[in-house]
Amino acid sequence: MAGSCSQGCLFSFFEYKTAEYVATKNKTVGVLYRLLQLLIISYIIGWVFVSRKSYQETDEAVQSSVVTKVKGVSVTNTTDSGLLLWGPEDYVIPPQSVKVLDGRCRGDDDCEEGKMVTAGNGIMSGRCLTKGGNSTGSCEVFSWCPIEKEYKHQDPLLTNAENFTIYIKNFIHYSKFNFSKSNVLQTTNKSYLKGCRYDEELHPYCPIFRLGDITRRAGHNFQDVATLGGSIGIMIEWNCDLDKGASNCNPQYSFTRLDVTDSNDAIEAGFNFRHTRYFKTAAGESYRSLFKVYGIRFNIMVHGEGAFLCDIVFFYLKKRSDSYQARKSKRS
User: Fold this and answer.
1) Does the residue 279 lie in any domain?
2) What InterPro entries does the record point to (predicted)?
3) pLDDT mean across residues, the chain
4) Most buried of the four, 33, 83, 124, 291, by CB within 10 Å?
5) Poorest-confidence range of 36-40, 237-241, 242-246, 250-254?
6) Three-state SS for 327?
7) What is the DSSP letter of 258?
8) Binding residues
9) What is the pLDDT of residues 189-201, one digit of tens each?
10) Considering the entire predicted model, what is its pTM?
11) Angle CA(173)–CA(175)–CA(177) in degrees, nearest 5?
12) Are residues 174 and 305 in the same domain?
């Protein structure tokens, strides 16, 4: 009994079964069957191929570098500085309170020598300075005098700075496809860059931007932003379908302000930095001029995705597929 069972299982293992199909002439069933086929084919073509482009291989690791150059000249005439001419070398610079918490003292022991004063302006010398018969005083510090003072915000100094231009040169590289490109338009017109300014409709691929246009496209007025400073984001999108050729791989620009929050807190908004200029008198005494500058910081962010037809087409459906396989495959 056990032997016949094992033989039956052995023979059934090598059996091959085929399905029997019956053709029925029923219009309702036939229409439903074809509709089902049409839905499946439409899904594959519409969603998989057209919308999602699943037949392509993608590279989201875009390698990018950005070089910028600002141009523009302005003239100012104030009572403090007189007549001044401002060029890019003057206004393009790469990117404290008197009431100090630990500045009060009763004796020298309260002023630790060499300690930096919290929220202060220098380093403690180790001496407590009192005035008159007061029992408390202030710790002496090594610092520049006089200390910085807060002034009421004035109108922007360079009022015509919104007409200055910034030249953004961006290079991208998709290592998976060994594809590189720049955002500078390839043209035989040598004077194109001298006269073009970025415009979504007229010059969408011109890399020279007017500062006033950048802030306007970010939804703000240039003069308002320049009063307290601000941070503007310039997004460059490189979404390239490389099947269509390099000429169809072009950047798309968008602009937004980055330092504005929902709270509209003046402490959070704005952008400023400090820089100094040093000089000495004839007697050898050192002086410095401290500048607190309100300006606009431009943050350039590059994103992108490159897509190319799947390798299966080149392996089997294209001429010279053997040479393509040799380049893609490594055998040892």
Assistant:
1) yes
2) P2X_extracellular_dom_sf, P2X_purnocptor, P2X_receptor, P2X_RECEPTOR_CS
3) 74
4) 124
5) 242-246
6) helix
7) S
8) 69-71, 165, 272-274, 292
9) 888 888 899 998 8
10) 0.58
11) 100
12) yes
Query: Do 301 and 156 share a structural domain?
Result: yes
Q: How far is CA 223 from CA 184, 197, 296, 307, in A?
A: 29, 20, 11, 42
Interval 23-34: pLDDT, tens: 666 677 677 777
Residue with tokens 């970010």: 218
Nearest CA among 158, 154, 155 for reference residue 72:
158
pLDDT of residue 214: 93
For residue 275, what is the domain's CATH number?
A: 2.60.490.10
Q: How many domains would you assign to the chain?
A: 2
3-state helix, strand, coil in the chain (%, to 5): 25, 35, 40
Answer yes or no: are the C-beta atoms of 257 and 218 closer than 8 Å.
Answer: yes
Confirm whether 37 is domain-assigned.
Answer: no
Range of the domain at 180: 57-95+151-309
The answer to whether the bond into 146 is cis (omega within 30° of 0) is yes
Q: How far apart are CA 41 and CA 27, in angstroms?
A: 21
| CB of 296 closer than 8 Å to CB of 229 | yes
For 169: left if phi > 0, alpha if psi spans -120 to 50, otherwise beta; the answer is beta
Q: Per-residue pLDDT averaged across 42-53, rounded?
A: 67
Inter-CA distances, 280 with 116, 141, 290, 291, Å: 26, 22, 15, 17
Express each pLDDT in 114-145 by its tens digit: 887 766 677 888 888 888 777 788 888 887 77
Taking the CB of residue 320, how many other CB atoms lie within 10 A of it? Answer: 9
Q: Which residues participate in the annotated binding site for ATP?
A: 69-71, 165, 272-274, 292
Structure tokens belonging to residue 115: 């300690």
Q: How far apart are the first and last CA of the chain?
A: 55
Q: Residue 113 carries which side chain, given as an amino acid letter?
A: E
Copy the structure tokens of residue 223: 């003069």
CB 292 within 8 Å of CB 318: no
Instruction: Please count the helices (runs of H) and the strands (runs of E) in the chain.
Output: 8, 15
Q: How many residues does the chain have?
A: 332
How far CA 221 is from CA of 119, 160, 232, in Å, comes to 34, 13, 12
